[in-house]
What we know:
The chain is built from four helices and no strands. By secondary structure, it is mainly α. α1 packs antiparallel against α4 and α2 packs antiparallel against α3. The N and C termini lie far apart (32 Å). One fe (ii) ion (FE2) is lined by residues 17, 21, 58, 62, 122.
Amino acid sequence: MSMMEWNDNLVLGHSRIDADHKRLVGLINQLSDAMAGGKGKNVCGHVLDELIAYTRTHFAMEEQLMATHRYARALDHKTEHAKLVEEVLDFKSKYDAGTVTLSVSLLRFLVEWLTHHILESDKDLAQAIPPG
Ligand SMILES: [Fe+2]
Ligand SMILES: [Fe+2]
């Protein structure tokens, strides 16, 4: 079973945002599978890097949309993005240093963060801008 199931509730009606979210869910599942499959630190670390890189690209894309459409709640939304990036980079540096390991609780945190962020903040953004 996948760590995070994609479902219609998560579809916001903005094609680029939705496509990115689907890919992020896929990467979380890939990370979960690598971890559950007992893949080594290199493989897991590589998937984690990919997840971090894609998350940053996605956040930058949303923030560009906010700027283009003069989205009123950009500041709060960007703060949420920045906090997550900070936390995940902090985790990654500890992971690289060997002081933390991947865990189900980290994956659950990512699933909960993403679900909540999509259903609240990204939904609000998608409703405020033209579908694209
Ligand atoms: Fe967002
Ligand atoms: Fe998003």
